[in-house]
Amino acid sequence: MSKKSPSMDQWIKEAKEHPSAARVGMYLFHNGVVRETPKAKVRMGIDDGTIVEKLDFTFDQAKVDRAIEETLERDGIFYVNTWLNEGTLDVGEDIMYVLIGGDIRPNVVDGLQFLVERIKTQCVVEIESLI
Fold first, then answer.
1. Per-position DSSP letters for the chain, written without gaps between them
2. If you classify domain 8-130 with CATH, what class do you get?
């Protein structure tokens, strides 16, 4: 059974009350969702006719924490919040939420891409069940 997804309204409220809020000119959300298109098709163009039925998802919290620290060391990034699901997830279920706040758009966009890439490549294990 998956975890309950967080409220983005609550997250942005908390972010704007954080001590770093006066330095933030932009917040950006990311919401990763289980899709039916297999990773092999999306990333490598391999279409064997299968679709994703379920996704087994786990993560290493210590590695996520380090990725957050590295993101906060980047120029212009002052706020990060993450939530990662776990367990066997159905198509359409939330995999992760990331909220990042920073001074200007280029820094925030780059910071979000950096953090999501780190999480996806260094912190999680995703196993697709195909049909």
1. -PPPPPPHHHHHHHHHHSTTGGG-SEEEEEEEE--SS-HHHHHH----S--EEEEEEEE-HHHHHHHHHHHHTSTTEEEEEEEE--EEEETT-EEEEEEEEESSHHHHHHHHHHHHHHIIIIIEEEEEEE-
2. alpha beta
pTM confidence score: 0.93
List pLDDT tens digits, range 29-78: 999 999 999 988 988 888 999 999 999 999 999 999 999 999 999 999 99
| Per-domain boundaries in the chain | 8-130
DSSP state letters, 24-43 = -SEEEEEEEE--SS-HHHHH
> Model confidence over 76-130: pLDDT tens digits?
999 999 999 999 999 999 999 999 999 999 999 999 999 999 999 999 999 999 9
The CA distance from 55 to 127, in Å, is: 6
